[in-house]
Amino acid sequence: MSITVQEELTSSAEQRDGSFAAWAPSIGRGKRAFLPSGELVLAVDLWVVLAVLWASKLASWGFQPAVAVLSVTALALVAVPRTFSDHLTFSAIEDAGSIIRRVALAYALASAALALWGGGSPLTLLAAAGCLAGGLTFGRAFSYAAERKLRYKVSRSRTLIVGGGEVARRVVSILAHREHYGLQVVGAVDDDPKFSPSELGKPVLGGISDLPLVVSAYSIDTVIIAFGSGDQADLIPAIRKILTSGAKVWVVPRFFELGFDESGANHLWGLPLMRVRPPAHARPEWAVKRLVDITLAGLALAVVSPVLAVIALAIGLTSGRPILYRQTRVGMGGKPFSLLKFRTMKRADEGQDATEWVADADRVTPLGRFLRDSSLDEIPQLINVLRGQMSLVGPRPERPHFVEMFTERFSQYATRHRLPAGVTGWAQVHGLRGDTSIEERAMFDNHYIENWSLANDVKIVLRTTGSIIRNASLVSLNTIGAEQASEKPTEGGNDVRERGSHV
User: Fold this and answer.
1) Is residue 329 domain-shared with residue 465, that is, in the same domain?
2) DSSP of 457-485
3) What is the dihedral of CA 335, 336, 340, 343, to 10 degrees?
4) Among 138, 269, 418, 431, which has the highest number of CB atoms less than 10 A from its own CB?
5) Tens-digit pLDDT profile for the chain (503 aa)?
């Protein structure tokens, strides 16, 4: 008979520490290592870099800026990526090729700096690069050896298995006999486990829907998805919940027997595992995104301030106040905020603006049509970015009326609110704006969220900038063409437009 999560949550502390501990006395909140493996690698790599700097100073009787450039660049390329990645298995031999390539790249950059500005000896720089490559490789071997010792004696991660079949039993058996992985299995969850707890080797603590509660109740650090019997539609939102709690999630890939790209894979005694990326806002580089937002938005507003003043003056002269248009939109976590735009339409009642999907063409002013076509009406949203209500890149925000409507119609629509709304987004650079498929927009937005990176943000900003320039050029050409056509004389003194109106 399985132990359900409801029973666990309602049981007293005495029952939890007594009967369950009697069944599996080794289960307990494991002590964490004084340094997680990533920080340990960074500490050793930093020591190697400082040692090479000190040695090069002694060898050349002075400080060489080129060697400093080499050392700092190598540290950034070699140590930092490893610090923020997780590995169940690690090998200095496997890392050696990557270390040599990255040090070679750092050497090329330092050599370029030396050729341009001087500041050292080419021979000393080459020797320092060789020492760095060798030292970082041997340092990695030391770090990994220390990590294995820590996993055996100190650092054990409380682990939950999702699944109750053959693959899940294999995972439980591997981790029971291979302590060097540092994973201590607490139990499993599955809707219809194939094996009993005694056959599986661990208790079944609940079903798939109980996964977030089990993770919280048993202080789970790591979850391994091993082909559970539950519906995948129920498993995905459960995984997203436990990711936000800070737990690490690994997945045994389907059809792993056929082989696959192992660039991002780990192995559990021959069984491949893929790490599910943590939520974007839980990654170290997320802070960089906010810093970039503030910097670029502030600079952009400063640069285009003369353009903003001209647009504001033109709106005031042609259609009066207000200059800015404020509309309630839904941002991250379903929180409403006031989105800013230049006003491009004649004023209407608030209810009409909140529920009108496609703007009435008769309400759009001539100046407003130009601003819309060139996307200049969106510039005030940079103020929303500075306020922290939006990001430069993210899912485009929608009005509450339509958010409620689309959430009911499309199952994945609400999940697009997991990140801040953006001035531009992955869906928009693929042409999904205006009166286009909402289901496809949600699909693109969720793809962006699941695969977020700073590099992708840069790509989207560049593509958006190119699109704005192209649109502005087309608008200008169309305007010039229309003016030339209107000035061209025809027979009888009528222009083309007047003649056409009589046809």
Assistant:
1) yes
2) HHHHHHHHHHHHHHHHHHHHHHHHHHHHH
3) 150
4) 418
5) 444 445 444 443 334 333 333 333 333 344 443 345 567 888 899 999 999 988 888 876 667 888 899 999 998 888 877 766 677 777 888 889 989 999 999 999 999 988 888 777 888 899 999 999 999 999 999 988 888 877 776 667 899 999 999 999 999 999 998 888 889 999 999 999 999 999 999 999 999 989 999 999 999 999 999 988 877 777 888 999 999 888 999 999 887 767 766 666 688 888 888 889 889 988 878 989 999 999 999 999 999 999 999 999 999 888 888 889 899 999 999 999 999 999 888 776 555 555 665 556 667 888 888 888 887 888 999 999 999 999 999 999 999 999 999 999 998 899 999 999 999 999 999 988 877 899 999 999 999 999 999 999 999 999 988 877 776 666 555 555 555 555 554 444 433 333 333 32
Please check whether residues 229 and 318 belong to one and the same domain.
Answer: no
- Judging by DSSP bridges, how do beta strands 157-162 and 183-189 pair with one another? parallel
Q: Are both 56 and 201 inside the same structural domain?
A: no
- The structural domain count of the chain equals 3
What amino acid is encoded at 476 in this protein? Answer: S
Last residue of a domain, one of 100, 119, 153: 153
Range of the domain at 240: 5-10+155-277
- Both structure tokens of 244: 């936000």
Residue 170 belongs to domain with CATH number: 3.40.50.720
